[in-house]
Lipoprotein
Amino acid sequence: MKPYCTVVLLVLLAGCGSASRVVRLDTGQSEALVFTPRSRAEPVELDDDEFEEAVAKLARDARPPDRPQEAARRLFEVAARSGSYTYEIPSHRITPFEPGEHLEEDSTEVELTRDYLRWCERTGRPGDCLRLLTESPTVNGDGRFALALALARGAVLDEMLETFKDMADPHAMVAAVLWTWTTYLVLLSIPDVTVSKGLAAVMTATLIAYVGVDTFWGLVVGFKRLMNEADRATTFNELREAGDRYGKVMGRNAARAFAMLAMAAIGNTAPGLAAKVPKLPGSMQAAVQAETQVGIRLAAVGQVETVAVSAESVTIALAPGAVAMTARAMSGAAAKAPPNGFRAWGSYKSFKRAMGSAGPGKEWHHIVEQTPGNEKRFGAQAVQNTENIVPLDKGIHTRISSLYSSIQRDITGSSTLTVRQWLSTQSYEAQREFGLIAIEKVTKGFW
């Protein structure tokens, strides 16, 4: 494969365990910044209308390829792993077909293919409904993984099919999404695979923002298990069972995020995908999780050059400018202690007596709010101190207070809780991370 200056190396080591993992931010200029996710993140929730509207809009800009498997390989620039061949499960050996050659009628692949075609017909989509047979006369190789994945999250694909019903060939678009999704996951799951183009890196960083570090690891490790089970499956039912197990690992929200990003990636480039990300539903909440989970700004996801995934860490190489922005977001210039060092008090009244006015046109602002609940949980001195209370322009302070009092579903994932109520259940570290992000976003007019 032709080498490129920018590559994505995604490596899955055996097992994922439950130990805390770190994120390393690397520019190649100095020692990597090490970032530990401050709290466990849940996949961003996308409701029915949001998801369907998003994929319908993305579909208007995409043209389904005639050969979706081949198109997906070109998209991520990976070598062909399937085609006209038999796949020998015990030895994992591939035997190519000669022109005009056919498998024996009693072969596992032929029977699996017949069951697949019968399944397509039962679901009202007669023929090769998932385009698994465009490169092979039977369901084998990566086609097994694609079929298992379709069985894992069939409901999400059905939602997409309904959304595409007015297109000339809705099944072709669903097949394109499925093959993009499958090829990307296969790429993540194979050790020592080097992929040119930054599209996979942008997709990985965005996906982590949407589902969180822990869920991301679970998805990759789970798919590795799915691949092994699909390789060993000798019947359609065994393949379905493997898909069902992975479907439970993935869950509906992660599956929708995956499908939406795969849809956005079709026929795109790394900069093109990055430009679409801020316009996707749930992007505001994903932006918060990007900074608290991996220490990067979602707006700078296009500057992700490489991503390396191991059992212990994610290493993200960014352009120097992107890392500078990340460093500011992580440290929060407004939160630095004054020259006389860290000081803490038992009440806000004592803080004001010691520190005086915030300055002309400014007001004191608590990064972690001084609510009774927070003071009870964390202690007054954790809230009333020089690292948590910073001077802000009055206008900015008022806008942040209004934001906290409002319901922001894109940020919190809730249609009933205010931002303040949502934050009140989270850890001190998570509240502080969000508070720093809120200062920056409101100051720049993003929120």
Summary: Residues 1-19, 82-106, 192-196, 324-340 have pLDDT under 50 and may be disordered.
